[in-house]
């Protein structure tokens, strides 16, 4: 009973009628725990710094080979977890429990003064049960005080933890680590210690802090709704802006401190501010309001603060207002997509649609343009479904990622060449079976036109579109579906306008011999587009290079781990994320990055120009984009002593915008 009381969510009391049975999801959890008891991890010998279990490897690592007179040393408790297994944060949520550490048997230190730091956790949702923890790998940085630096340090750790997948297994390991007072230099030992120090630093950088990492807490308020429910709202200032934030509130629960909040509602605000509102699962006494611990997590960085919230009256929920604003931006972004450089490959399809509409009866013309609009919107809905599925499966998602797939490119090339040959009169395109029947119906061919045009017109981002897509892909399925629907409506607005007012299409002359000439002319851009796609496809069919392809001129290969070091040394760094299939990227390069005014600025001493090639899938570049809430390209950002967190630039670059960012980043 003691074990179950630690594991189950007794810290968050719920009202359960005595006559009702245990909820199925809780019963499933208990069953998994019971099964896991049969797989109890055995104690390991206390003379090992690393222990292997069926679920994970647990080890103690140090950033040095000897004490060397230091008053304290840094070590790390490292978990290398097998696939699908996780361990828990200090406040695990609805279920689970965190690791407890006993240093009994250690010498030359004070066990009670050993500090454990907790990197920002990840939220997991299973059967409606929400927990916080870590997957794959985590290192808990530990600061160990040394009583007498002239004597060896002897550490003995007994770690008791819970590790879960489909079942939960209590883990118990005994670890040992000894550091001499001093030691002769040993190349291999020093290299191992340097690697451990780097790993500890990596996770120490993810430990939430009261300040730094570009995050600050502007205010914390507590409001009570008409139903008596309490909500805490944190206003956070972030640079760069928050991309996928989460909020954890810890407060008094049955005499201890535990998680008392649910998932937050995120509302972007002006000037880099964001409000995060979360309902309290355990109410706070308003008359004697205790301080609470606030943790803001965002893509590996975090903010940690303890303060007493300010009591306010409940405000109307503006979540719907925020979504409406994003939907408006999506509508505008979809409309602007019609005039972006990335629509050049399908410009002939749009013109061909107008040519075919010449002299058509209004009812037929209306059905044709409605069919194209329906094809556009349907394609966006299908894209939303695919991206949602990939996101739920844990796969990196992005805008225009279909151009990274050779099969997609090959199919598009074949279709383009078939359409071009048909326009040139080489043959009459007859579609088989059901497809032909659908195309023969009123609006059927126009629908296919809309689908095809949309697939080819979305390899790059556009003003407002990047904001909308970033908001959508950082949220859930409902928001993704709604925002992509708005994008489709925006892109189809010109077709809907002609369908509503067919007279707009009467600017073209009535059908005649000129249409045959027009078709032959319009076939040429289709052939050009097929050749362009072929130039993208060919490198993807070749073996991937062992290293990143070299870049030309002043540009160096993208190395995100070097940016902080370069900025700390007083240098300015510009990162250009591009791809061979991104037409807007090519326009930016031609008009700005290779501009005679800009090139001298980028060539100056103290300026480093990095180029990230996203032509092929690259998880490092995808993660870099996600840090800024971007899921498509082009993307450019400038770093420097005056802007260590980076200054993102608009999708359509201008020389003035780039020069201004370089000057501001230089400081």
TrEMBL record:
It is found in: Cell membrane. GO terms for molecular function: protein-disulfide reductase activity. This is Suppressor for copper-sensitivity B. Gene3D superfamilies: Glutaredoxin. It comes from Novispirillum itersonii. Residues 536-667 form the Thioredoxin domain. It is a multi-pass membrane protein. It comes from the Bacteria. Its main location: membrane. GO terms for cellular component: plasma membrane. GO terms for biological process: cell redox homeostasis; cytochrome complex assembly. The chain crosses the membrane at residues 323-347, 368-387, 407-429, 450-474, 480-509, 521-542. InterPro entries: Cyt_c_assmbl_TM_dom (IPR003834), DsbD_gamma (IPR035671), DsbDN (IPR028250), Thioredoxin-like_sf (IPR036249), Thioredoxin_CS (IPR017937), Thioredoxin_domain (IPR013766). The keyword Ribonucleoprotein does not apply.
């Amino acid at each position: 009973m003691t074990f179950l009381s630690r594991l189950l969510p007794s810290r968050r009391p719920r009202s359960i009628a005595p006559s009702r049975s245990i909820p199925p999801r809780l019963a499933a959890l208990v069953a998994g725990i019971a099964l896991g008891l049969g797989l109890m991890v055995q104690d390991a010998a206390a003379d090992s710094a690393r222990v292997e279990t069926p679920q994970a490897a647990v080890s103690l690592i140090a950033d040095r080979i000897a004490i060397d007179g230091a008053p304290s040393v840094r070590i790390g408790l490292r978990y290398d977890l097998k696939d699908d297994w996780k361990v828990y944060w200090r406040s695990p949520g609805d279920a689970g429990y965190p690791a407890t550490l006993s240093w009994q048997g250690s010498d030359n230190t004070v066990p009670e003064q050993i500090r454990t730091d907790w990197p920002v956790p990840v939220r997991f949702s299973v059967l409606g049960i929400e927990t916080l923890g870590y997957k794959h790998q985590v290192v808990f940085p530990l600061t160990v005080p040394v009583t007498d630096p002239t004597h060896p340090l002897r550490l003995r750790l007994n770690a008791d933890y819970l590790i879960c997948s489909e079942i939960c297994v209590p883990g118990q390991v005994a670890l040992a680590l000894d550091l001499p007072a001093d030691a002769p230099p040993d190349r291999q030992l020093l290299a191992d210690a340097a690697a451990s120090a780097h790993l500890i630093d990596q996770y120490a950088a993810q430990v939430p802090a009261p300040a730094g990492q570009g995050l600050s807490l502007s205010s914390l308020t507590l409001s009570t709704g008409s139903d008596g429910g309490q909500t805490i709202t944190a206003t956070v200032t972030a640079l760069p802006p928050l991309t996928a934030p989460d909020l954890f509130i810890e407060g008094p629960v049955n005499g201890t401190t535990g998680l008392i909040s649910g998932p937050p509602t995120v509302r972007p605000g002006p000037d880099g501010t964001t409000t995060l509102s979360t309902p309290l699962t355990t109410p706070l006494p308003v008359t004697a309001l205790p301080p609470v611990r606030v943790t803001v997590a965002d893509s590996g960085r975090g903010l940690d603060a303890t303060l007493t919230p300010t009591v306010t009256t409940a405000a109307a929920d503006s979540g719907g207002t925020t979504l409406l604003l994003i939907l408006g931006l999506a509508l505008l972004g979809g409309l602007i997509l019609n005039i972006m450089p990335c629509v050049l490959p399908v410009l002939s399809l749009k013109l061909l649609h107008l040519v075919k509409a010449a002299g058509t009866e209004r009812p037929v013309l209306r059905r044709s343009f409605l069919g194209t609009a329906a094809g556009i919107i349907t394609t966006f809905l299908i894209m939303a479904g695919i991206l949602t599925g990939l996101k739920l499966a844990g796969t990196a998602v992005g805008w225009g990622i279909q151009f990274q797939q050779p099969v997609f490119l090959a199919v598009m090339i074949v279709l383009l060449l078939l359409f071009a040959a048909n326009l040139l009169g080489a043959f009459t395109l007859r579609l088989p079976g059901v497809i032909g029947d659908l195309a023969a119906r009123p609006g059927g061919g126009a629908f296919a036109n809309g689908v095809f045009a949309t697939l080819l017109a979305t390899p790059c981002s556009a003003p407002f579109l990047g904001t909308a897509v970033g908001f959508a892909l950082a949220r859930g399925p409902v928001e993704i579906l709604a925002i992509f629907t708005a994008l489709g409506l925006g892109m189809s607005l010109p077709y809907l306008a002609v369908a509503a007012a067919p007279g707009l299409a009467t600017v073209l002359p009535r059908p005649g011999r000129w249409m045959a000439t027009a078709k032959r002319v319009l076939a040429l851009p289709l052939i050009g587009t097929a050749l362009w796609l072929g130039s993208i496809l060919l490198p993807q069919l070749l073996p991937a290079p062992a290293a990143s392809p070299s870049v030309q001129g002043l540009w160096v290969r993208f190395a995100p781990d070097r940016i902080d070091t370069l900025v700390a040394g007083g240098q300015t760094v510009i990162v250009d994320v591009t791809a061979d299939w991104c037409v807007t990227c090519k326009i930016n390069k031609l008009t700005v990055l290779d501009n005679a005014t800009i090139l001298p600025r980028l060539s100056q001493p103290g300026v480093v120009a990095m180029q990230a090639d996203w032509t092929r899938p690259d998880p490092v570049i995808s993660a870099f984009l996600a840090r800024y809430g971007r899921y498509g390209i082009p993307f450019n950002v400038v770093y420097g002593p005056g802007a260590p967190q980076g200054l993102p630039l608009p999708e359509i670059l201008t020389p003035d915008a780039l020069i201004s960012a370089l000057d501001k980043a230089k400081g």
